[in-house]
Each structure stands twice: as C-alpha cells, then as structure tokens.
Design goal:
Rossmann fold; globular; 247 residues; 4-stranded parallel sheet; alpha/beta; 4 strands
C-alpha cells in the first residue's frame, strides 16, 4: 500500500474481513458492533464487519442533536449493505448530562468540550451493546485521523479494533466503492457531525488530498508538512497509553 494508485481495493476487501474475524474470535467475542454515522469511514467498516460476521453485526445509529440527513444516510448504508441497525437518540441523555455538568461560558468556548461529550456518549452506548452481545467495538478511524490525532480521546478513539488504520482517505473511498457503499456517502464531505457546519477539512486546516499525498510520500508543501507535524505532535498523547512512573 505505497500509494493510492497502486492500492488494490479488491484484495483489501477480501483480506480485512478475515482479519476482523480472527481478532474478534481471539478475544472470545462472537461479532462486531459499530457506529453508523452516515459518513464514508463508518460505512466501509460496516461493509467489512458484515462480511466477517453476516449474522452477528450490529450498526448503531446514534443521533445527538444531529443533522437528520446523517440518520437518513446511515439507514441507506444499512439497507444497501444488509446490516442490522438500531437507532438510539442520545439527545435527551446529552442535554440532561450537560445540564448537570455544563459550566457557564460563551458558545465558542463550549463547542469543543460539548462535541467531545457527544462522542463519548456514543462510545458508552457502543460498549453497552458490545457487552450485552459479547461483541467487540469496531472503530472507523483511518490513517489520516490516527496519525494526526484527529479523534476524541475515549470517544471515537475508544474502540477494540481499527481495520482502516493503515488506509488514507482516498484508499478508504476506493474500498467503499468495492464494497458497494452508496454514492451519496462516497461523495459526502467528511464530517464528525458534532456541531452545525463542522467539517473535517475545516478543522484540520488541510484537505484530505493534501494529507493523503503527504502521508503516502512523506513529502509535501511546507505549509502541509508544518501543519501535519503540529497536529501530530499535539495529539500524540491520544495514541499512547497513559504514562506511568517508574518503580
């Protein structure tokens, strides 16, 4: 996988379900649960897990004051890929919790912690169902997000397996085409859906095309290199276990 041009989506689509199946079984589990957001990455993961466990895959659609379009697209993905789904509206729980813990402050200061709270509520819901069914939680983080630390610690980063961790965004899109992900999802601008108007590229300050090229070659315009290195350095703690003192 040295580049997107040489990336073999068919071979990857054949290989990754076996890897998921082996890892799940080695943990003593019997299936996989994942969050379906209406976005590309989660749709691709749904297709892979469905191939690994045709009868024991659960997709959870977890709106939390979300754009209704997210739910519609997630349902389209589930229908197209024949994934069993359950919708759990986290909005009431989110508002109740925020009413208890939310400190006063202006909207701009609260936006990121409130967005992260939504991601952590989703993680809690996924693990509840995983525990209930003896499944593992299958995450949708790709290489771009993981290397730059673009995920919520103990939120969408709180998972058991990361089958897309070696793939940049353009490779994930090709894999989605191979798996039959609906065109509306393949072409949708990537977003975590944590607040109105939020997009991945807007937050990162880089396009995925720029990131893909940089990660695959190790080179890029100075602006891209500087921004990517700064994000990776700031998010390094998310990719590590909590530090422990020496004895």
């Amino acid at each position: 996988m040295n580049g997107s041009a040489s990336f073999d989506a068919r071979a990857t689509a054949a290989r990754l379900p076996g890897w998921i199946r082996r890892r799940v079984r080695s943990a003593g589990a019997v299936g996989g649960v994942l969050g379906l957001s209406g976005g590309l990455d989660s749709a691709v993961v749904a297709g892979l897990v469905r191939r690994a466990f045709p009868d024991s895959t659960l997709g959870l659609i977890l709106p939390c004051e979300s754009d209704p379009r997210d739910v519609d697209l997630a349902r389209d993905v589930a229908r197209e890929l024949a994934v069993t789904v359950r919708v759990v509206d986290l909005g009431p729980a989110y508002r109740a919790l925020l009413g208890e813990i939310g400190p006063p402050g202006d909207g701009a200061a609260r936006r990121l912690p409130e967005g992260n709270l939504k991601a952590r509520l989703r993680m809690t819901c996924l693990y509840y169902h995983a525990n209930l069914l003896n499944y593992l939680v299958i995450g949708s983080g790709n290489r771009c997000e993981l290397e730059l630390g673009y995920f919520t610690k103990y939120g969408d980063g709180g998972v058991d397996l990361l089958p897309l961790a070696r793939l940049v965004k353009s490779q994930v899109r090709k894999l989605g085409q191979q798996l039959g992900v609906p065109a509306a999802v393949l072409e949708r601008p990537p977003t975590a859906g944590l607040w109105a108007g939020q997009t991945d590229e807007g937050e990162l300050g880089l396009t995925y095309a720029e990131l893909d090229a940089y990660l695959l070659t190790g080179r890029g315009p100075r602006r891209v290199e500087d921004r990517a290195r700064a994000l990776a350095s700031r998010g390094r703690h998310k990719r590590q276990l909590p530090p422990m003192p020496r004895r």
